[in-house]
């Protein structure tokens, strides 16, 4: 049996995915979580073979979850299932060691087949995303620039961001300025939108 943990913040989607995968004779849904931090705690407890996660989730994103699992040396293979058909997300997912990247509008049998493929040691990437990623530009942002820009896009001030990420306010402003410059944006909000639309956040 392939032991799968599902992390998805939309309750209806989470329930549907679990019900769908439980129909497969060789897949066992061992746990579900509605945010990244709960998913991490369950991974430590249940040691699933596959972690099926969305990209954007409260408390910890799917990509942050993948990085944390890799840092802790887990053998669990991470697969992203998302609505975000953006090459920037795919590139960051691959850099984080993610083994699969599928879109939520894919046929149901595609998901089960992809899980089996990843469990067997392969990769499973939505074909349309793989092609787009090949043609897309590189992400110019550093991890820290991405972090402060995401928080700025949520409406936080430089002072609030500084407290949250344990940096000085001046350093936060420098990171924001660098991000704005790299993206040729007019201000932090425009930079946030550009980076978000490219899948770099």
UniProtKB/TrEMBL annotation:
<dbReference type="InterPro" id="IPR011006">
    <property type="entry name" value="CheY-like_superfamily"/>
</dbReference>
<feature type="modified residue" description="4-aspartylphosphate">
    <location>
        <position position="54"/>
    </location>
</feature>
<dbReference type="InterPro" id="IPR001789">
    <property type="entry name" value="Sig_transdc_resp-reg_receiver"/>
</dbReference>
<protein>
    <submittedName>
        <fullName>Response regulator transcription factor</fullName>
    </submittedName>
</protein>
<feature type="domain" description="Response regulatory">
    <location>
        <begin position="3"/>
        <end position="119"/>
    </location>
</feature>
<dbReference type="Pfam" id="PF00196">
    <property type="entry name" value="GerE"/>
</dbReference>
<feature type="domain" description="HTH luxR-type">
    <location>
        <begin position="134"/>
        <end position="199"/>
    </location>
</feature>
<keyword id="KW-0597">Phosphoprotein</keyword>
<dbReference type="InterPro" id="IPR039420">
    <property type="entry name" value="WalR-like"/>
</dbReference>
<dbReference type="InterPro" id="IPR016032">
    <property type="entry name" value="Sig_transdc_resp-reg_C-effctor"/>
</dbReference>
<dbReference type="Pfam" id="PF00072">
    <property type="entry name" value="Response_reg"/>
</dbReference>
<keyword id="KW-0238">DNA-binding</keyword>
<dbReference type="InterPro" id="IPR000792">
    <property type="entry name" value="Tscrpt_reg_LuxR_C"/>
</dbReference>
